[in-house]
Amino acid sequence: MPVHSELHGHGPVVLFTHGYGSSSHMFAATAAALAADHAVIMWDLRGHGRSVVPELSAEFTPEHCLDDITDLLDSAGTERAVLGGHSLGGYLSLAYAQQHPDRVAGLILVGTGPGFRNEDARARWNEMAEGFAAALEARGLAGFGGSDELRTDVHRGGPGGLILAARGILPQRDSAVIDGLGTITAPALVVVGDRDRPFQASSEYLAVKLSGAGGHLVVIPDCGHAPPVTQPGPFHAAVRTFLADHEW
Question: Which one of 14, 44, 157, 222 has the fewest beta carbons within 10 angstroms of its own beta carbon?
């Protein structure tokens, strides 16, 4: 399945994956800030933005998204890259680092959680995902809630792909990602807004669990769930410091 992607700049590759309901637009300013000395790939997840929407719900799984990341890295001609991800995009980046450690030089995890070991917690998350799908079915793109990274105008295919993504990509079916954090050896930058309460504890947890690989937590002041959008200056400063501190 073809997905929309853009490549900006030249140098070591950084690939950014957005969260559910957003699109590559949320990293446009980031790409501009890094393009002088990095090659920045930003892309639209299946069903989002300008990515083609197939009719088959079977095409919407986390596994297919990880295959998309491999295809994007291959198309860029790079064996290894820093993977940056926001929310769902961060979760997918963690999964990719566990399954393809040789291809991940580093991680930038923004407003990210590693999933849940507790089945009841996973069930509540999956109920939320189904609620997103139901709202989109009932009201179209107007069913989106308010959040800084969400824009209805970027989704060229309407709500159909987002509904499939809510039911196929967003749900969590096991604890594989959180259980596998100890296998990650790539250095990680963990970023969270100081007002992003649902993801503060998970960000602190990630920083501790990834500390053996050089995990580092940055809390952005006066910021909610979307630092690249609402506080691009401090966010880009943190990212540039992280990239400068490591050899890629």
Answer: 222
Residue 87 · residue 112 · CB < 8 Å: yes
Give residues with Cβ within 8 angstroms of 13, minimum separation 6: 38, 39, 40, 41, 73, 76, 78, 80, 81, 82
Count how many domains the chain has: 1
Eight-class DSSP state of 81: E
**What are the φ and ψ backbone dihedral angles of 61, each rounded to 5 degrees?**
-140, 155
Tell how many helices (H) and how many strands (E) occur in the chain: 9, 7
Q: List CB contacts of 196: < 8 A, sequence separation 6 or more.
A: 111, 203, 223, 224, 225
Q: What CATH number has the domain bearing residue 126? A: 3.40.50.1820
Task: Please identify which residue in the block is written with the tokens 């969400």.
Answer: 150
The amino acid at residue 199 is F
pLDDT in tens, 70-106: 999 999 999 999 999 999 999 999 999 999 999 999 9
Burial of 210-232, coded b for 16+ CB within 10 Å and e otherwise, reads beebbbbbbbbeebbbbbbbbbb
